[in-house]
Amino acid sequence: MAASTSRPLEYLEGLPGTTFNKLYQQPSTALAIFRRMLPDLAKCFVMALLYLKDPLPMADLELWVNAESRKQRDNAISILGRLHILQSKLSDEKVRTYVVTDPFATSLRQALTGSADTLSFGVLSNTPDEYKISIDFLDDYARRQWEAVLGYMVGTSAFEQRGPRDGASLSEGVKQLLQAGHLVELRGRSVDITKDGFGFVLQDVNTQVWHILILYVQTAEAIGMDSVEVLSFLFLLSSLELGRSYEKKHLTPDQVRTLSGLADFGIVYQESPEATQFYPTRLATTLTSDSSALSNPVTGSMGPAGQPGSSGSGFIIIETNYRLYAYTSSPLQISLISLFTNLKYRFPNLVTGKVTRQSVRRAIEMGITADQIISYLLTHAHPQMRKHNAGHSTSNTGGVPPSVLPPTVTDQIRLWQLERDRLRATAGFLFKDFTNFAEYQAPCQYAAEVGVLVWKSDRKRMFFVTRHEQVAAFLKNRK
Amino acid sequence: MPRAVRGLLIECDPSIKSMILKYDEERHDYIVEDLDDEHHLVIKESQLQGLKARLDQDLDEKIMQLDESESE
């Protein structure tokens, strides 16, 4: 599964069963979870079991899967179990059976057949808007807001200069959320990005949106909103259609509040907080779709053409000699790249520079890890690099998976990071001055048994432990 | 009579260890106990940050870096 699914999945798994019960009342939630969170095999299981009248014996289900694929099967079943979708029961004949749990099954059937009332999937607004809102406008709005959020985090001055003229002003709510999630820290009046924040800005957009949404749900409870309502609203959003407007009057007060919160991030658009309708943007509608995060609209549109999704998302070329070419004019992307690159020249649609030992070490001192740099480069690699290296790997059948980035570069970036850690330090206590070997051996052995021993030397009769209390008590008792 | 001493166990390469030993010769303010093998020694807890900074600085000076000349 894509990496971007793991965070929402992790969060969902941590919820109590009663929450799931409430969540699955909504057909849109059931469908969204089915589409986005489940591995393919798990989807097959759910589909096969969904319309069965009786629970399916475990042995029958196991027959569906080849013996070699047991791991995938176990994984699928375990995910289904953790999301409270599949339940195993003992039947009357004492056979273990599987059944799709009820609120989920009913809701998913409704979602598939459309038999339920349609409130769950949002209500299309019929009143025509005075101003025609086009998809291009929504994409532009989403991109501007999202870039403003990221720009605020990395402190790009260009965004402040553009300011309100561009309409990309950030509300207090956004800033507070970023602080609550420890993505930025306020020091006096300046905004400092944290280590987590660096990890965040270097991820692809879909993962970022999920990160923000989960933060939002987590803080929702603190300000007195029902997290289940907020969550199911998020899943509802993800099933809406881009470029259509939806009625607000069917939403609960908490959901209307969520709506204006999300508008600040560019996830939905509304004319004003009082408007009676809202538009989901591409950030919302791709949340639970299967379309890969790479074809996301925002970073893609940061390319020179400025047209959403026209060129794919990649714009970075890095050569084996560490030179980097980035086809972008976005101040945000340029300042991100400059975090770990020595930029040399800037052209209207291109910046070039070199990844050097110095520049990488500067980044590492700021708390960025080598893996974050590499994954950023990988996420934004130019299509040309993917094509070139994919073609290359077919001639070289060494069983090595084809890598998009030159291996020399990725290895070197990791080595530069390792250089920083020349020594490993462990805090603790050194025990010494034992008069004879027997006196030394017993406490040393005891320390190893309780798991605090780090180092010992039989010859010098010394040993090093992380905690001394137990060993000291042991020595006292022996006297 | 056995004693326990608080400190930081440092694990490093022999080259790094010999640099630390050399620093310590100046004022004997780093090392709590030299553990007589090539990779380990115990130092004072308060000295770690200073030691790391000093090591980085010295190594940067001493190790030749070929790519820093920036020939574009």
TrEMBL record, chain A:
One of its GO terms (molecular function) is ATPase activator activity. Transmembrane segments: none annotated. The keyword DNA-binding does not apply. Residues 411-476 form the Transcription factor Tfb2 C-terminal domain. It comes from the Eukaryota. Keywords: DNA damage, DNA repair, Nucleus, Transcription, Transcription regulation. InterPro entries: Tfb2_C, TFIIH_p52/Tfb2. It is found in: Nucleus. It holds the Pfam family Tfb2. One of its GO terms (cellular component) is transcription factor TFIIH holo complex. GO terms for biological process: nucleotide-excision repair; transcription by RNA polymerase II. NCBIfam families: tfb2. Component of the general transcription and DNA repair factor IIH (TFIIH) core complex, which is involved in general and transcription-coupled nucleotide excision repair (NER) of damaged DNA and, when complexed to TFIIK, in RNA transcription by RNA polymerase II. In NER, TFIIH acts by opening DNA around the lesion to allow the excision of the damaged oligonucleotide and its replacement by a new DNA fragment. In transcription, TFIIH has an essential role in transcription initiation. Belongs to the TFB2 family. This is RNA polymerase II transcription factor B subunit 2.
UniProtKB/TrEMBL annotation, chain B:
One of its GO terms (biological process) is transcription initiation at RNA polymerase II promoter. Pfam families: Tfb5. It is found in: Nucleus. InterPro entries: TFB5-like_sf (IPR035935), TFIIH_TTDA/Tfb5 (IPR009400). GO terms for cellular component: transcription factor TFIIH core complex; transcription factor TFIIH holo complex. The keyword Nucleus applies. It comes from the Eukaryota. The keyword Acyltransferase does not apply. Keywords: DNA damage, DNA repair, Nucleus, Transcription, Transcription regulation. Component of the general transcription and DNA repair factor IIH (TFIIH) core complex, which is involved in general and transcription-coupled nucleotide excision repair (NER) of damaged DNA and, when complexed to TFIIK, in RNA transcription by RNA polymerase II. In NER, TFIIH acts by opening DNA around the lesion to allow the excision of the damaged oligonucleotide and its replacement by a new DNA fragment. In transcription, TFIIH has an essential role in transcription initiation. In NER, TFIIH acts by opening DNA around the lesion to allow the excision of the damaged oligonucleotide and its replacement by a new DNA fragment. In transcription, TFIIH has an essential role in transcription initiation. When the pre-initiation complex (PIC) has been established, TFIIH is required for promoter opening and promoter escape. Component of the 7-subunit TFIIH core complex. Belongs to the TFB5 family. This is General transcription and DNA repair factor IIH subunit TFB5.
